[in-house]
Structures are given as C-alpha cells and as structure tokens.
Automatic annotation (TrEMBL), chain A:
Pfam families: ABC2_membrane_5 (PF13346). InterPro entries: ABC2_memb-like (IPR025699). The chain crosses the membrane at residues 16-44, 76-97, 103-124, 131-151, 171-191. This is ABC-2 type transport system permease protein. Keywords: Membrane, Transmembrane, Transmembrane helix.
From TrEMBL, chain B:
PROSITE patterns: ABC_TRANSPORTER_1, ABC_TRANSPORTER_2. This is ABC-2 type transport system ATP-binding protein. The keyword ATP-binding applies. Keywords: ATP-binding, Nucleotide-binding, Transport. CDD domains: ABC_DR_subfamily_A. The keyword Transcription regulation does not apply. It comes from Cytobacillus eiseniae.
C-alpha cells in the first residue's frame, strides 16, 4: 500500500517543480500562514484525484494486486502523509522568508485541510469524471470566500455557541476540535470505501 | 485437466443488455480464444473475470480461489492486456514500471528489460507518443514480467497492422512452450485463432454458445450447400441457420452426421471457418 502512496510522487514529479514556487508566491505575497498551510496541503492529494478520476487509472489499479479497500486507504493515509510533508516545506519557506507563524496556524491549516478532504473525497466517487475538479474548485473558492461572513454571523447572532466555546479551556477546545475532525475524517473514509467497493469500471 | 478460470451460472444485468447464466471454463496450459460480435458480452465477461465488475449472481473462481477472500493472491498471478492504454499516458515506461513493479511480489526486472529490448520500446518517452502497436507491446511487456500464470487479453490484436499481429501471435506461441501458462484472449479477428488457439469460446447476445477445442469445432460444424428443392420444414431442422439465394442454399450445421443421413450425396459439405460460424449464428438469432 505504501507503493500506492509513493505513486503520487512519481506521477506528479513535474507538477512538484511548481509546488515550491507556488508556495513561495503565497509566502512572499504575505498571505496568512493558515491559508498557506491549507493550500500547500491540498496540492498533492488533489492533483492525484485529477489523475484518478480517469476510468483507465481505476482499471489499472484494480487489475493490479490491490484490494479496493487498500486503494481508498492509500488516498486517506496519503493525504495525511503529504499534508505533513507540505507543512514541513511550508514552515521552512516561511522561516526562510522571515514570516512569523505559530503552531496554531499549522493546527488550523491542517484541520481545515482534513475537513475539506473529508467532504470532497466521497464527492470524487459520486460525481462523473470531468466535472468533479470544477465542482471542487468552485466549492473551495466559495467556501473560502464565505467563511469570513459565516464566522462573523455566528459570533454576532449565535452567542450561546460562542459563549460555550469561550467558556472552554484552550486544551479542551483543541482536543475537542481535533477529535471531531478525526471522527469526520474517519466517517468520510468509511463512506468513500463503501462507495468505491460498489463501483463499476 | 484443471480449470484455471471457472464461471458458474454467472449473470450480470445492465440496462438493455445482460450476460445470462454463463458457465465457462478456461483450461490450464492452453490458449483459449474468446470470440463473438461486438457487444456480445466479451468485455463484460473479461471484466468480471478481472473483478472490475461483480456478477449479480453466480460464482467466479480463478486458480480455484474466489475474489472475496483471495483478491490479491489471484491478481498476483494474472497478467492483463486491455484494448487501449490503461497506463498513465503522461509517464514514460521507466516511471510506469516504478509504479507497477512494486505491486507484484514476483516482478522480474531482467525479464522486463529483455522484453523492452525485444520490442524495441523507448524507455524514456511518454506513453502518449507510442503508436497503438507500441502501447500493446508495452502492456504485454508489463504483463509478462511478473511470472503470471494466466494472461488475460481483451482484443489485443484490434487496430494492429497484420505484421505486428503475426509477431504477437508468434510471441504468444513462444510463451506457451512453458507449459504452465494459460492464455485467454478475446478477439473478433478469427483468423488469429486458427493459428494459435487450442479452445474456442463463442459468445452471442450475452450467452455462451459453445466452448470447445478447435478440433471439435472443426469436426462438429460444417457449411452445407445444395439446391433449394432439398429444403423443407423437416430437413431445415438440421441447420443453425439457412441462407437462401436464387442459385441454392448455404447453411451451417452443428451435426454433420445428421446432415449426411438426411441429404446423403445431394449436398456439398465444407469446413466451416470460425467466421462462418459467427456469421450464421448471428443470422440464426435474428430470424428465430
């Protein structure tokens, strides 16, 4: 299964050349570290999906001695693996360009990435090839655009929730959010596996 | 004689098309040619054998194992070649090998490079620059480099020029010298099969019409030619399908002895080619 994760690097070696300048642009433009971590994490796993939405790729992978459970597991584990890798590279880039960032930035960036992955990975199996990348890109732009107003709306109008959150200690808050994100990621993993097992190529 | 692939009462239904109650055995150590018109259900059957499609009902066993428990062990022993390139087209053979090789326990780099050399394939050019014949050779090189016992090919000769087709058939023949190998391949170019197939499985409209040794096919089926006056409701029963022309009739029979008994010397009996058989079965179904 490790081979399936390693496959992404072989497939994307040319795209990876763009990876570093791509991140540097964000870093130099002074984007918020959270956004840089998020975008960097998305790069490799979602590029893989651009390949894997093709029917031929699925015929190939399923004709090789892999089970469908392993193929999906490699996507979910691979996403985490490449996220960690991207965080390393991004941190280095931020450090070199003397842009300050905190562990909280990394935590929020990777948390957002995992949530985004958890919501979109099952969609890749549902939508027809060719449309999905567009759907995901648009939803990503809409989400990042809408996130600010939504957060504002919640702070202004749903004070019960914000009060509750504010009343929690920092540790409890972080643990809680981490657990919720992990649970969502796992549920998404299970859903995607069950969809993929029923697929026809 | 052991069956390396076994389909028992396999049914798969699609909208407007289905494979019905299929029973198919592929014998170990032989070449089985899988024939049928376009849309007869050959690719569906091959996809079910590869576990890309699951049957609605029935059982599929390979090497005596089923996919539910032994998916990896089964695929480890299969080499596959599909009609059309399934490998990442942007990659060169070296990178494709890097992705495919670690999937197999018995991958043999030396064998792979021997085939690359033999097929004169460029290892550093991307797959999309390959001609159809080169893509086929590349698929074949990959399929043959992990000591597969069963080679499954879906229309390997489609779209290839006659020279390369013949080279491919010679190569397959060479492979069979090692008696452990089994080849199962679909084609609608039936002349390919006269050269190398030991068994012929013939599919028509989602059903397996027969699966016989090529010798039995030649012995059982024949073309019969004679005058129209010989035909009536009873004598026609001896035929799969009758083609009438003003000059006389031409028909396919699957019981030569019965034809001899009925018509004696009044008709001419000729050997039926696989193409004749496919043609008459197609006609037969349309008229019934």
């Amino acid at each position: 299964m490790f081979n399936l994760i390693r496959r992404d690097v072989i497939l994307q070696k040319w795209q990876l050349l763009f990876f570093i300048p791509f991140i540097l642009v964000f870093v130099i433009m002074g984007a918020s570290p959270v956004l840089v971590f998020l975008v960097a994490s998305i790069f490799i796993p979602f590029n893989t999906y651009a390949y894997d939405e093709k029917a031929e790729t699925n015929i190939l992978l399923n004709s090789l001695p892999y089970t469908r459970i392993e193929i999906i597991a490699s996507r979910y584990l691979g996403a985490i693996f490449y996220m960690l890798l991207s965080i390393g590279v991004t941190s280095l880039a931020l450090f070199i360009f003397n842009k300050p960032f905190t562990l909280t930035d990394i935590a929020i960036g990777s948390g957002l990435f995992l949530l985004f992955a958890a919501f979109t990975f099952p969609l890749f199996q549902i939508f027809k090839p060719g449309y999905i990348t567009t759907v995901i890109l648009i939803s990503f732009i809409l989400l990042s655009w809408a996130a600010q107003p939504i957060a504002q709306f919640i702070t202004e109008h749903l004070t019960a929730i914000t009060d509750f959150i504010a009343s929690l200690s920092m540790t409890a808050l972080y643990t809680g959010v981490t657990l919720i994100i992990m649970a969502i990621y796992l549920i998404s993993w299970i859903i995607t596996t069950s969809i993929y097992q029923r697929k026809v190529f | 004689m052991e069956n390396i692939v076994e389909l028992k009462n396999v049914t798969k239904k699609f909208k407007g098309f289905s494979v019905n109650n299929m029973n198919l055995q592929v014998k170990q150590g032989y070449v089985t040619g899988f024939i049928g018109a376009n849309g007869a259900g050959k690719s569906t059957t091959i996809k079910m054998i590869m576990n890309l499609l699951r049957p609605d009902a029935g059982e599929i066993n390979l090497f005596g194992l089923d996919y539910k428990k032994h998916e990896k062990a089964i695929k480890e022993r299969i080499g596959f070649v599909y009609d059309g390139n399934v490998f990442f087209e942007g990659l060169n053979l070296k990178d494709i090998k890097r992705i495919v090789a670690p999937a197999y326990k018995h991958w043999d780099d030396k064998v792979f490079h021997q085939y690359i050399e033999k097929f004169e394939l460029p290892i550093n050019k991307s797959m999309k620059t390959f001609s159809k014949g080169m893509q086929m050779k590349a698929s074949l090189a990959i399929a043959l480099s992990h000591q597969a016992e069963l080679i499954i090919m879906d229309e390997p000769t489609a779209g290839l020029d006659p020279i390369f087709r013949r080279e491919l058939l010679n190569l397959l023949q060479e492979l069979m010298i090692d008696g452990n190998r089994t080849i199962f391949f679909s084609t609608h170019i039936t002349t390919d099969l006269d050269r190398i197939a030991d068994y012929i499985a013939f599919m028509q409209n989602g059903e397996l019409v027969f699966n016989q040794s090529i010798h039995d096919v030649a012995e059982n089926y024949a073309l019969v030619k004679g005058g129209l006056d010989l035909l009536d409701r009873d004598t026609e029963k001896a035929f799969v399908h009758v083609h009438r022309a003003s000059t006389g009739f031409e028909a396919l029979t699957k019981n030569i002895q019965a034809v001899k008994n009925t018509f004696g010397d009044t008709v001419v009996i000729e050997r039926a080619s696989l193409e004749d058989i496919m043609y008459y079965f197609k006609g037969g179904v349309q008229h019934v």
